[in-house]
Amino acid sequence: MGRFVPLGGCLFTGFLMVCGLGLLGLLAIPSVGEAMGPLVCESEQTMVSETQSYHLPGENGEEVFYFCQDASGKREQVGMGALLGWGLVVYAGFGLVVVWPLVTLFMFRARRRAAALFPAGGLEGLASRIRVQTRQQHGWQSPPPAPPAPRSGDSPAERLRALDSLHAEGLITDSEYAAKKAEILREL
User: Fold this and answer.
1) How many CB atoms lie within 10 A of CB 45?
2) Residue 181 has what pLDDT?
3) What CA–CA distance (Å, rounded) separates 62 from 48?
4) Got the DSSP string for 26-79?
5) Cα dist from 157 to 47, 150, 162, 182, whole Å
6) Which one, of 97, 95, 96, 68, lies nearest residue 82 by Cα?
7) pLDDT of 35-84, one tens digit each?
């Protein structure tokens, strides 16, 4: 189903272009309409155009009429519906032959890029990779490092002596000294 989306997009865009811009192009440039002659006229007829100018108060313009003319000079007027209908067919053919394969190739390429961007972890994997890259690039955005763990080589007796020296120098209060001393003694 997803492969038909580009086809629908091409046809819709072609319809808009042919109906909107094609109509203006056929009205303004007679050679464009005459190029559709082999598609619109019968085999022994040729496409001719006739331009008429008109001048009204406050308005000037030109009208272009298209005719299929045979060898004897007999003319049949061609309506815009026939020209636009064949224009739509030509544009849809162009879309099927050129645009649709290119869009399909770009879709496959985009899927491969998406698969590389979103590995098996999905969005969570992408978010974690972004966090890691941000921390690597911008150390100031990382959370502060954890305090160093107490050295396992120190015995409780050595830690109590260090605590006593800190208390004697007045670097910690009596309540901090008592709390830390109780914590060290609990480890025994």
Assistant:
1) 19
2) 92
3) 16
4) HHH-HHHHHHTHHHHS-TT-EEEEEEEEEEETTEEEEEEEEEEE-TT--EEEEP
5) 110, 14, 9, 13
6) 68
7) 777 777 887 777 777 777 888 888 888 777 788 888 888 888 887 777 77
DSSP conformation class of 96: I
pTM as predicted: 0.37
Query: Under a CB-based contact definition with an 8 Å cutoff, are residues 96 and 9 in contact?
Result: no
Model confidence pLDDT, tens digit, residues 1-14: 456 667 777 777 77
The set of residues, in sequence order, having a beta carbon less than 8 Å from that of 94 and lying 6+ positions away, is 14
- Residue of 63, 61, 37 lying closest to 51 (CA atoms): 63
Q: Where are the domains of the chain?
A: 4-117, 156-186
